[in-house]
Amino acid sequence: MARCTAPVYGHRSASAAAACPACGGRFSGYRGSCSPLSYYSPSLSSTSGDWATSGGSGSSARPRWSRPGSTVVYTPAEVRALTPIRSSVEKRANLPDPRDVFLCHAWDDRRGAAKELHDQLEARGVSVWFSEKDVSLGTSLLREIDKGLAKSRVGIVLVTPALLNRIQGEGIADKELSALLARDLLVPIVHETTYEALREVSPLLGSRSGLSTSEAPMSEVAAKLAELVTI
Questions:
Q1: Domain count, the chain
Q2: In a domain? residue 49
Q3: Nearest to 163 by CA among 194, 128, 121
Q4: Contact at 8 Å (CB) between 106 and 163?
Q5: Which residues contact 57 (CB under 8 A, 6 or more apart)?
Q6: Helix/strand/coil for 123
Q7: Could you give the CA distance from residue 213 to residue 149 in angstroms, rounded to a whole number?
Q8: Which pLDDT band, with edges at 50, 70 and 90, does 119 fall under?
Q9: What's the pTM?
Q10: Is residue 189 a part of any domain in this protein?
């Protein structure tokens, strides 16, 4: 029986999905990854210091920061992407007057997707640096990201079509974005767009793995983030 290549190569593009011997015939009009529970690879049924996988009809992983009894399900790829972020969170556990999360988003999303994610996080006890409450109008996006991250354990970039337009319009420099990404503090949350579209606008940010609402609803994304930042 053909095995899905998603655990190793990912299915972030139509060509990658089409090349998969297990899934290639099922991806007409494909936009996202395989369902995190739709594949199983024996090579991933193992344990390590940061995560453990379980097999059967699907493959999932439990990170070391997931508390006993947690019902939050991660893919191995998500655990690999979030593990360095968790290490940074732990190092920043004693920040003075900290926020758990700095939420970076496009202005057009402030009452839509960004507000939804903000509310989902705060409902789970996560303190959020949010522009509607904390960022003044007319200030530089990058400067506010930098200031917010200085007082936050982790930064979230809500990647939407509106954010992609804003990045293009403001011409964010690769070297400035690289300085932010190098600190392992940013988690891209892709919503109503794709990693392919993000890479076309910002290859550096697009190279960083994160979470996507095409693979799980916003509530599940918020649950994973809440576990990630809880000390």
A1: 2
A2: no
A3: 194
A4: yes
A5: 37, 40
A6: helix
A7: 23
A8: very high
A9: 0.70
A10: yes
